[in-house]
Structure formats: structure tokens, C-alpha cells
Amino acid sequence: MSNSSNNPSSNPPKLPLGPEPKRSTRQATVAWKTNIITIGGDAPVRVQSMTNTDTADAIATAIQVKELARAGSEMVRITVDTPAAAAAVPYIREQLDKMDVLVPLIGDFHYNGHTLLKDYPECAKALSKYRINPGNVGKGAKRDPQFAQMIEAACQYDKPIRIGVNWGSLDQDLLASIMDANAALPVPKTAQEVMIEALIQSALQSAEKAVEFGMNPNQIILSCKVSKVQDLVAVYRDLSHRSDYPLHLGLTEAGMGSKGIVSSTAAMGILLQEGIGDTIRVSLTPDPGAPRENEIIVAQEILQTMGLRNFTPMVIACPGCGRTTSTTFQELAANIQSYLRQQMPIWKKTHPGVEAMNVAVMGCIVNGPGESKHANIGISLPGTGETPAAPVFVDGVKVKTLRGDNIAQEFQVIVDEYVNQHYAPK
């Protein structure tokens, strides 16, 4: 019999635990007054979002920006597409400042950005960053001068830029040039490979031109957005090897509901695990009437479940089975998670570190006590046929058993006490 210890397959190489180190990049700074957000370098992966209001409606836009910032968006992008929208930007900024909401605003420009930045200098000043789409800055002889105008505004007002290439609005002249060169190859690349190369070249060439026009290379961020998971992974893997600019990740149209969440998580999860990505946006299509903040929650949970950042205490809850026919544990888990998220805007200022806390809400005796002991605070609710009692564990030690109709309220009190005892400023 052969000795298994001499068999290479029995001694596989030790794989790393956790994500690969972040790729080395430049570091850009996006700021408004005292709120300074770094992107790239040694900064954490940042979360951003975008409004869907008519920017010309300054009040509605300011309210939504406030809601997105309160939910955890570290930067908020707004559409600047018309003179009315550009004229409203300074007023939006003023309203936010009055509410002490210092979240940086990003202006999203297409087609007429060069004109709006020139004609509305107060808009250019009130924005903290400009998003420029190379495919929409102009065609033919107009392209470079109009692109240069936007870069000149960024330099004049000391604003960083994101050169955001999108496969749905790719520079057609560049694409045609690459397709012609590809057709002349002995073994032409596939259409998908050509599209990926066109996206990357558009971003890199535009960044090179921006620097030629006077842009500080440390204030440039790149993105190449597509709508398919495998295409996004391929684009950013290649782009990350060909530049040292910070990268903004996101599917351009992730979709609605679970489809949008799953595709965004799959694509960005792969890239973040490989150390690629410096800021992310989850582009969810909201259900009619649904809050816009859902995309921020998903982005935060991607980063937190991967161990990259902490945003809010996480609730661990079992999925339920035949042992847990009662809905009590489901309701308690949902209520506690909602309560923790609601408290975070306050706790973030008054109880530093609480975002790393773990709470377990379990539904029966099989895994309940064990999972509860591993959490900072855990409760194991009775399953079908079990004694109507709910042991509570704090840092692995059973501290009490809850009974009766007020278990939810009593458990919330225990959570509050733990937060005040362990995370109050010293």
C-alpha cells in the first residue's frame, strides 16, 4: 500500500484565508468641507449611490441625498443633464449643509457636461467630483476639445474625476478602429474580447488625455461598467493589471430584486476577493415605491459579510425547519436587525466599534445554544415541542433565561445594555 504522505495530492498547498491584499493604487480625495473621503491606496472600499429624482427639483433631491447619506452612502451621485439641473445643484448643496449633511456630491455628466460646467460655475464648485463618460463627450473633431473643457473645470476647481466607460455608450470610433485591427489578425479575437479591449482602451486613453490636459493623475478614478457578471470580472481583472488608478466597481444595470442582488454580489464578490476595487455601487432597480436605500444596504452587506468593512451589527439567524414551526424567531430576528440599523446613525457617533457586534437569534436547540455562544449576544428560542424558555448568552456565557410574552422587548433591553457597557466612549 502506498504511503499517502508521499502523494502530492494528499498535501495540497495551503490556501490563504480571506481576500487577497488590495492591489496597490493611487489615492484620490473626494471632499466637502470637513468630510474628506479617500479612495484607493490604503483607504477602505467605499460605498456610493445615486439619486433617481429630477435634479431640477432641488428639495426632493436634497431629501433623497440626505436619506442615502443617512443609510451609509459615503458619496452620492446626482444627474446633471440640463441647465435647470445645473442651476439647482448649488441650492441642493446649500440645503444639505443646513441639515449638516456633508456627503460629497458627484455630478453625472453626459453629452453637454462641458457646456454646463462652463455656464454654471457655481454648480462646478458645489460638486465634489465629476463623472465623465468618454463615449458621450462628443464625436469626431468635437471630442477632444469638449473633453478638455471638462478637465479644465476639474483643474480650475480642484475636483477629482471618474472616467466612467459604459458598454452601452462606448466610443464608436474607438470600437470601429479596434474591430478593424482585430479583423486583420491571423486569429481574430471574439466579439466579447474585442468589446472588453475597447472598454479598457477607452478608459486608459481618456485618463492619459486628461493628464495631458493638466489633470492630476492622483485625482483620477476609472470604471468600465457592463451588465454581465463574467464580462465585469474579465474587464476589471485586465484593467487592474494595466493601470494603478483606483477602480469603481458595479454592474451598469444589475436588475430588480434578487436578480440584481445576486448578480452584483457574484461579480463584485469575486473581484473584491482578488483585491480589486476601491469603491462600489450596487445599481438595483427598485420596486415601485421601494426605498432607494436598499442598494446601499446590499453594498454594505457585501463588504461586511466578506470581512472587508463593518457598518452595522449583524444578526445571525437560522433559516427555520420542521423544528421551528413558530414564527417567533423570524419576527425577533427581523425586528432586531431593523432596530440595530435604525440605531446606527446615533451609535456611530456615540458608541464607536458597535458596528462589529454580532447578534444571534436562533430557533431551536440543535444549533441555537452553540451559535448563541459564538455571538456577542445570542438567544436560542424554543422550537417545536421544546420547553418554552429562551436562554440568552453574552460573550459565550449564559446570563439568563427569558420566558413569557415579552421576550422580544426584554432581549432588546439586553442588547441596549450590552452596547452601553461595551462600546460607550471611555
Structure commentary:
42% of the residues lie in helices and 18% in strands. It has 426 residues and is an alpha/beta fold. The strands form 4 sheets. It has an 8-stranded parallel β-sheet with strand order 8-7-6-5-4-3-11-9. It has a 5-stranded mixed β-sheet with strand order 13-14-15-16-17, with helices on both faces. α12 links the parallel β14 and β15. The longest helix is centred in the last third of the chain and has 23 residues, at 328-350. It is globular.
Key features?
Sulfite Reductase Hemoprotein, domain 1, globular, 13 helices, iron
CATH class of the largest domain: Alpha Beta
From N to C, what is the helix and strand string?
A: EEEHEHEHHEHEHHEHEEHEEHEHEHEEEH
Compute the separation of the termini in Å: 64 Å
Instruction: Give the helix/strand class.
Output: alpha/beta
CATH topology of the largest domain: TIM Barrel
- Please count the helical segments: 13
Round the Cα radius of gyration to an integer and report it.
25 Å
Instruction: Work out the oligomeric state of the chains in this entry.
Output: single chain
Strand % is: 15-25%
The pLDDT mean sits at 94
- CATH architecture field of the largest domain: Alpha-Beta Barrel
The tally of beta strands, per DSSP, is: 17
Strand order of the largest sheet: 8-7-6-5-4-3-11-9
Q: Give me the CATH superfamily of the largest domain.
A: Dihydropteroate synthase-like
Family: Belongs to the IspG family.
EC number: 1.17.7.3
Binding site for [4Fe-4S] cluster: 318, 321, 364, 371
Region (Disordered): 1-27
